UniProtKB/TrEMBL annotation:
Its main location: cytoplasm. Transmembrane segments: none annotated. GO terms for cellular component: cytosol; nucleus; plasma membrane. GO terms for biological process: negative regulation of cell growth; negative regulation of G1/S transition of mitotic cell cycle; positive regulation of receptor signaling pathway via JAK-STAT; positive regulation of transcription by RNA polymerase II. SUPFAM superfamilies: Fibronectin type III. May play a role in the negative regulation of cell cycle progression. Residues 182-275 form the Fibronectin type-III domain. This is Cytokine receptor-like factor 3. One of its GO terms (molecular function) is DNA binding. It comes from Ornithorhynchus anatinus. InterPro entries: FN3_dom, FN3_sf, Ig-like_fold. PROSITE patterns: FN3. Keywords: Coiled coil, Cytoplasm. It is found in: Cytoplasm.
């Protein structure tokens, strides 16, 4: 029978061996992942190089075709000019030639007739001579057509030099560049309920960007579509289905340039957060197809339009964007609440925090001293909340404190919101007394 010490040493060795095996397995998995990363990097280099070769060959082939066409068109234009000049200036020479040839013929006929008259009989001779002299007197034998001198008629030539070759050569030698990486890359993808915030940055210090262009597509789609063109370096892409992978890419346009840069390396992002939706069927409001935009309609019905579910969790950012405005009223409100309470015409009540269209901030129905700028078309109002204390149950059933930050137009109000009981998620809502207000939530 083994002594206890030897059994303990053996068990310890087995444990150490198992730990070494697990470490080796983990090490092998890490190395395998790095090999896969190397393969993906190699594939990206080779595929992008192949695509670049194809793009270069096509571009220069198209360029040669265009240049050949332009040269042919210019040659044709110059040849047409030669034909026109030749035709326009040969025509009067042809007319002059006809006139001279007619005069030569007339002179020859007159010579022959005169010789016959001179050689005729005496009686007949006088008559023929008289007739001949009469005829000759009517022909202006001293009138000669004017023939232009050689210095007065065109002498065509082509003025050609090789300066265009120098200009074209200099342009061609500088035409096109090959970049090892795009000048902009996607920096961060942040999930939002029903959306993804895409942030990008410039990675080429020598590149001066004037505009950026963002595209996205479902990973199952073959077609990218534009979602943003502008000078900002972040954008929230809405209409994102939860738990679906999307690809994003961005490019830039240099200052004073028309063409776009190469696309960034596509990044995959998705959102696990359920989209925010307004409650459908409320008489006073019309909703968009995705139910994330509410329009106060002409109905006389009043009350608070709530979210369809408590989808706002503290720790996240809730954003309202006012797309259009109507006539303001002191009861107007945009905010969050613990639960839906029918019978109220505003969120300016207990267990709710909200902002009025005049910028007033209400906590549990009481107006705060600090307020935000008045709401206008395009105003964005954000709510950020974090738990401050989790109190133990007391005689009132417990307490729960949230630190709330409401921001609008580069100003913010911060306060603590004391609730009767702990809650992880909240409803959001809005109320407007007059039609025309349209609010998007995300």
């Amino acid at each position: 029978m083994e002594p206890p010490a030897e059994r303990e040493d053996g068990a310890q060795l087995v444990q150490e061996a198992r730990e070494s095996i697990e470490a080796a397995q983990s090490y092998g998995r890490e190395l395998g992942q790095r090999l896969q990363g190397l393969q993906e990097a190699r594939r990206q280099i080779k595929e992008s190089a192949s695509q670049t070769r194809v793009a270069l060959k096509k571009h220069f082939s198209d360029l040669k075709g265009t240049l050949q066409k332009l040269l042919d068109e210019r040659l044709g234009s110059l040849l047409h000019q030669v034909d026109t000049i030749e035709l326009d200036n040969i025509k009067p020479l042809d007319e002059c030639q006809k006139l001279i040839e007619h005069g030569v013929s007339t002179a020859e006929d007159l010579v022959r007739e005169g010789e016959i008259a001179v050689l005729g009989g005496v009686g007949e001779k006088n008559e023929k001579l008289w007739s001949f002299t009469q005829k000759a007197s009517h022909i202006q034998l001293d009138s000669l057509p004017e023939v232009p001198s050689l210095v007065d008629v065109p002498c065509l030539s082509a003025q050609l030099d090789d300066s265009i070759l120098t200009i074209v050569k200099d342009q061609i030698l500088k035409h096109g560049t090959v970049a090892s990486r795009p000048p902009v890359q996607i920096e961060e993808l942040l999930e939002k309920p029903g959306g993804i915030i895409v942030r990008w940055c410039k990675v080429d210090d020598e590149f001066t960007a004037q505009d950026y262009r963002l595209q996205f597509r479902k990973s199952t789609s073959n077609h990218f579509e534009d979602v943003y063109v502008g000078s900002e370096t972040e954008f929230i892409v809405l209409h994102i289905d939860p738990n679906v992978d999307y690809q994003f890419r961005v490019c830039a346009r240099g200052d004073g340039r028309q063409e776009w840069s190469p696309w960034s390396v596509p990044q995959i992002g998705h959102s696990t957060l359920v989209p925010h939706e307004w409650t459908a069927g409320f008489e006073g409001y019309s909703l968009s197809s995705r139910r994330n935009m509410a329009l106060r309609n002409d109905s006389q019905a009043s009350g608070v339009l709530y979210s369809s579910a408590p989808t706002y969790f503290w720790g996240q950012t809730l954003t309202f964007r006012v797309e259009t405005v109507g006539q303001p009223d002191r009861r107007d409100s945009i905010g969050v609440c613990v639960e839906q309470q029918n019978g109220h015409d505003s969120l300016q009540r207990d267990q709710a925090v909200c902002v009025g269209t005049n910028g007033a901030v209400f906590v549990n129905g009481k107006e705060m001293t600090n307020q935000l700028p008045a709401v206008t078309c395009g105003t964005t109002v954000t709510f950020d909340m974090e738990a401050v204390t989790l109190g133990l149950p007391n005689n009132d059933g417990g307490n729960f404190k949230l630190r709330v930050t409401i921001s609008s137009n580069n100003r913010e109000v911060v306060f603590d919101w004391l609730l009767d009981q702990s809650c992880d998620s909240l409803y959001f809502g809005c109320s407007f007394s007059y039609p025309g207000w349209k609010v998007l939530v995300f």
